[in-house]
Amino acid sequence: MMKKIDKDVIVVAAGLSGLAASIAAAERGASVVVFEKSNTTGGAANMGMGPLGIGSSIQKQHMVSLTPGEAFRKHMYFTHYKVDARMVRDYYFKSGDTIDWLMEMGVEFAGVQRAFSADEATRPYSDGEFTWHVVKPEGGGMPGPRSASAMTKKMTERAVELGVEFMFETPVYKIIMEDGKAAGVMAKNINGEETEARAKAVIIATGGFGENPEMIKELTGYEFGKTIFNFAIPGMRGDGLKMAWEAGAGKTKPSMALMYQLPDNMNHFILDGAFRQPCLWVNRNGQRFMPEDQIGNTTFTGNAITSQPGMIAYSIFDSRLLKKYKKKGPDMISHVHPHDLYDHFDEQWERDLEAGYEPIAQADTIEELAEKAGIDVAGLVAQVEHYNEMCEAGHDEIFEKNRNYMQPIEKGPFYCCRQNVGAYGSVGGILINHKTEVMDQDSIVIPGLYAVGTDAYNIYGESYPFILSGNTMGFCLNSGRIAGENAASSIEEF
């Protein structure tokens, strides 16, 4: 027998954007049901550290002067105005209040940070801003990947408190359309039992298609596990996009929020961080391809690697530079990787070498290193020679790299790590307006249908704006909140 449910608002998936949507709608008196294919809430956000916020009380306490208007302008310059300015504006102007909204739920933040600091010469146009509100981990300790799970837990508790109903292990497979309007969904649980849920508003929040290699290749051109190594959260198969398109939603060109990483980087996290330094970076031909003082901006570096032969790069340092890192710490500090990672480097390196971890290589000569790593031998030898000459002269005549980082590669053993294009996941696919209402291909609103988070229209254009860190979570949270508020308001008008 089919189960039937009647609610004001249906939310499809219980990740960050779905949780935000459900809470926002419930706070305005709407009855809400959330369908989730897994057995828990949070989705990809459980892997992250925290959202963007601009104008929050935390920023004001830390004397961060960046305004939503300034951030909006910076974002639009970064994307060359190829994105919906109204949507970006509404998101940024809401983001500070959203941080305070989360704090009222009991979410605690470890302060506000930027993801990286640009070199002085490039700071005016490439510096990171203090927008990243990193969540305090549950149980204390240093913030890091997965810190944000403490936030999604508090949000889930708040949703339950407000009477939101969660139906776990019950994926939605169809949006019910009647007279051109979204009228509900069809879902089926793991036991094969079907549910027909009716509502005045349906909010799609399924998190994109980061775990669907076929869609990644078809829609973005990257090959999962070959030319891109993105976060592949189980269940993110593009279900929401497919259902929305079937219901008449317009299609937008999705992209991948690029960065760079080691393959299977979470199991090789020490090395992933240890090689994110402004040492010598080359492509497969042994040639430098960017000023290494910019590698702190993972978007810039990911973009640069996509333009190299085979979409790969190599990070190289020698034993003298490694000794310096061990003694004085890294040249570039990351909030993602632990600051003491060189204390654990030897242990991880030896273990991975012994296990045959393919992206790394060690050798006593540059020639041998090139052979082991798969770099053109003559090209690397010539590049190292030229690079060392420039280090001695104290000037990078090719890319004008900061002279403080012009450190020669000359004392063996030499260490090399292959860097691949990575991504935080997919972004975009479903056409929406600034109210998060889904539109058809002619930009006509489909009544009762909303899309949020990474399912929704791509506000990043061709490059993820890493200069305004926390952007993925920020947009998920705020687009979800906007959708929940608008869905509840539309019900009142019914």
Mean pLDDT across the residues is 94
Using only C-alpha atoms, the radius of gyration works out to: 24 Å
Q: Quick one: overall form?
A: elongated
Number of domains: 2
Q: Share of helix among residues? A: 25-40%
Q: Provide the CATH superfamily of the largest domain.
A: FAD/NAD(P)-binding domain
Q: What's the arrangement of strands in the largest beta sheet?
A: 6-3-2-10-18-17
Distance between the termini: 31 Å
Number of strands: 18
Detail the poorly predicted runs: none
Number of DSSP helical runs:
15
CATH class of the largest domain: Alpha Beta
**Structural class, judged by helices and strands?**
alpha/beta
* CATH topology grouping of the largest domain: FAD/NAD(P)-binding domain
- Main pleated sheet: 6 strands, mixed
- Named at the architecture level, the CATH assignment of the largest domain is 3-Layer(bba) Sandwich
Q: How big a fraction of the residues is strand?
A: 15-25%
Secondary-structure topology with pairs:
Elements: E1 3-6, E2 9-12, H1 16-27, E3 32-36, H2 57-61, H3 68-78, H4 85-104, E4 109-113, H5 123-126, E5 132-135, H6 149-161, E6 165-168, E7 172-178, E8 181-188, E9 194-198, E10 201-204, H7 213-220, E11 229-230, H8 239-246, E12 255-261, H9 269-274, E13 280-282, H10 298-306, E14 312-318, H11 319-328, H12 345-355, E15 360-363, H13 366-373, H14 377-393, E16 414-427, E17 437-439, E18 445-451, H15 471-492
Parallel strand pairs: 1-9, 2-3, 2-10, 3-6, 10-18, 11-16
Antiparallel strand pairs: 4-5, 7-8, 8-9, 12-16, 13-14, 14-16, 15-16, 17-18
Helix pairs in contact: 1-6, 1-15, 3-4, 4-15, 13-14
